[in-house]
Amino acid sequence: MKRSAILLFGLVTYAIFFATFLYLIAFTGNLQATALAEWLPRLPALVPRSVDLGGQPTPMATAVLVNLGLVLVFGLQHSVMARLGFKAWLRQRLPASAERSVYVLLASLVLMLLFWQWRPLPGLLWSAATPVGQAIGWAVFAGGFGLVLLSTFLIDHFDLFGLRQVWQQFIGRAEGGHAFVTPLLYRLVRHPLYLGFILALWGGPTMTVGHALFAGSLTAYILVAIRFEERDLAHQLGDRYRAYRQRVPMLVPFTARPFREEDSAGIVVAADGHPTVLDRHR
Ligand SMILES: C[S@@+](CC[C@H](N)C(=O)[O-])C[C@H]1O[C@@H](n2cnc3c(N)ncnc32)[C@H](O)[C@@H]1O
User: Fold this and answer.
1) Does the reported pTM lie above 0.95?
2) Distances, alpha carbon 3 to alpha carbons 8, 158, 165, 169, 237, in Å
3) How does it sit in the membrane (predicted)?
4) Which of 34, 187, 216, 233 is deepest in the core (most CB within 10 A)?
5) Ligand 1 atom index nearest CA of 197
């Protein structure tokens, strides 16, 4: 009974996450009307509120404060709950197999709060004037979200969103955490998923003040989150992660400084074919 309940919780959480992710795409791209409606006039309004449309009109200063507050709540939820110490604390109170689903559920709820309470700031900063410019804007937007989704599968999509953990407890198999891997895009940059988000946030054919606030504050949060995440990874993987960090740039491909002999002094680099399991239970 308890096993089935945890499995059901994980499945429902995954469905909620996926719907929230789809809403995030529509929210960020204003897939409600705007530019897309010019191309596809019969496109139904996909979402009632987006970064630029449908939100409560609010004076500028209040809108900025509310919006930054929403991003701060998002950042705090993500960063606090992703720390090894917090995970250990949570596991003393909840079944370990449900921990990731709880994180994913809360992350989705915090995003829903942001969608609901976001205040548009409609001043136009830039807009692509030509069809080619608009197409490039949409390509960056779509490519960014595509990169996010692809990166989740390169790491381990079902582990990141808690499904693997609830399934393994259901079939009575011990849970082991997912491996540290560096396939494809992870050889070009250390954070392709975050790079995808940054491209998606800044892509699209137009940019308003509100959209720039959304993109800018989340980009700043991503840069902070990378610091925390890398600190944990270096703690878990030691020299292996430090050597990876030397070889592969953070977000911009082909910008790593050349690897020098002295960089490898005292460092033992594990072969890429032998991933280390990231310990989720510390
Ligand atoms: C939302 S994912 C983002 C992954 C990565 N920062 C990126 O942008 O592609 C965060 C989780 O992925 C894990 N992670 C980061 N790099 C990884 C890698 N190369 N292989 C496996 N897991 C990784 C982190 O430990 C963390 O639990």
Assistant:
1) no
2) 9, 18, 11, 7, 32
3) Multi-pass membrane protein
4) 233
5) 8
Residue found by looking up tokens 């849970």 in the block: 175
**Using a 6 Å CB cutoff, which residues line ligand 1?**
151, 155, 180-182, 186, 191-194, 229, 233, 278
Q: How far apart are the first and last CA of the chain?
A: 28
Distance 31 CA to ligand 1 centre (A): 29
Domain ranges in the chain are 2-260
Q: Please tell me the distance between residue 198's alpha carbon and the centre of ligand 1 in angstroms.
A: 16
List of E strands, the chain:
124-127, 179-180, 206-208, 276-277
SS (H, E, C) 39-64: HCCCCCCCCCCCCCCCCCCCCHHHHH
Cβ distance 112 to 20 under 8 Å?
A: yes
DSSP secondary structure string for all residues of 114-130: HHHH------EEEE--S
Element counts in the chain: helices (H) and strands (E): 11, 4
Q: Do residues 138 and 204 lie in contact, with contact meaning Cβ atoms separated by under 8 Å?
A: yes
